[in-house]
Design brief:
Elements lengths: L5 H4 L18 H11 L2 E8 L5 E10 L28 E7 L1 H15 L9 H18 L3 E8 L2 H8 L1 H18 L5 E6 L2 E7 L3 H17 L2 E3 L2 E3 L3 E7 L7 H17 L5 E3 L7
Parallel strand pairs: 9-10
Antiparallel strand pairs: 1-2, 2-3, 4-6, 4-9, 5-6, 7-8
Helix pairs in contact: 5-6, 6-7
Length: 280
């Protein structure tokens, strides 16, 4: 699996199978002690082949020596990892497996569960999980947090006029615009249908208003071409920010939703802000 010849590993610490700087390389003594305590140690992570190539694998460590004293009394610094043989008479069995294929399958399943299949953005389920973490962090650090709700204007007309394939292209186009205009720390989500939500941790409502306007301008000024047909569309947006009377993410989203519908009622292709009763 690793490609190391016997003469290259005899007398060497087993850390040579881990990439430089990897956390598993830094925990070799701790893993040996854990194997003595529990009878085995199994962890997944990055490994290194003899040619320097990295692969995702797991390593099972099992002690081959009988326990000679209470391991709890031995600190991690007791375990020799230098390969000079000065670690009592301890011996361990290491079994390394390449599980790259399984990891790729698991990652694909994770993306399927937490990503929107059409746009690749965070889906509703993942949004709530990420938003709850962001809310807690901003609350603990006393940082502002804003949310923007976008909705494509007259989207049904687009579908009825150009077909559902073109409608899907519009949604992907909007998703690409959101990804390009927002920060990597923002949570950009397709919430359902033609509705997109962006949660902006550590962003004031004024900052959110500015970028929402920029997004509206971006969409309106970039005509989408589908099968040689030019499709123009616009979006409306509603903005709300955290306040002391908001007790949940849904409460915050309801305010952004009300603001967004006010933007539509005021003529569409614009941004409105929640002001306590309606949007201005």
């Amino acid at each position: 699996v690793t490609g190391f010849e016997a003469d290259a590993v005899v007398g060497q610490p087993y850390s040579i199978i881990f990439p430089d700087g990897d956390r598993m390389r830094q925990r070799v003594a701790e893993r040996l002690r854990d194997a003595d305590l529990s009878g085995w140690n199994l962890e997944e992570g990055w490994f290194r082949r003899a040619n320097g190539e990295r692969f995702w694998g797991n390593c099972l460590i099992a002690p081959m020596h009988p326990p000679t004293r209470a391991v709890e009394e031995v600190g991690s610094d007791h375990y020799d990892t230098t390969g000079d043989g000065n670690d009592d008479d301890r011996a361990y069995s290491l079994i390394v497996r390449d599980i790259s294929d399984r990891r790729e399958i698991n990652e694909a399943l994770r993306r399927s569960a937490f990503s929107d299949h059409l746009t690749g953005l965070v889906n509703r389920r993942a949004f709530y999980e990420l938003a709850s973490v962001a809310l807690e962090r901003c609350s603990q650090s006393h940082l502002p947090m804003s949310v923007i709700m976008f909705d494509a204007d007259h989207f049904k007309v687009v579908n009825d006029t150009y077909g559902h394939a073109a409608g899907d292209a519009v949604l992907r186009h909007q998703a690409a615009g959101l990804t390009a205009n927002f920060r990597s720390t923002d949570i950009v989500s397709r919430f359902g249908g033609e509705e997109f939500i962006v949660l902006m941790p550590a962003a004031s409502v004024d900052q959110a208003m500015a970028i929402a306007r920029r997004m509206c301008l971006h969409v309106a000024s970039n005509v989408l071409t589908v099968d040689g047909v030019a499709i123009s569309y616009t979006v409306s947006a509603g903005v709300a920010d955290m306040a002391s009377d908001i007790d949940s993410i849904d409460h915050l989203l309801n305010r952004a939703d009300a603001a967004m519908y006010r933007a539509k009622s005021d003529g569409r292709n614009r941004v409105a802000r929640w002001d306590g009763v309606a949007a201005t």
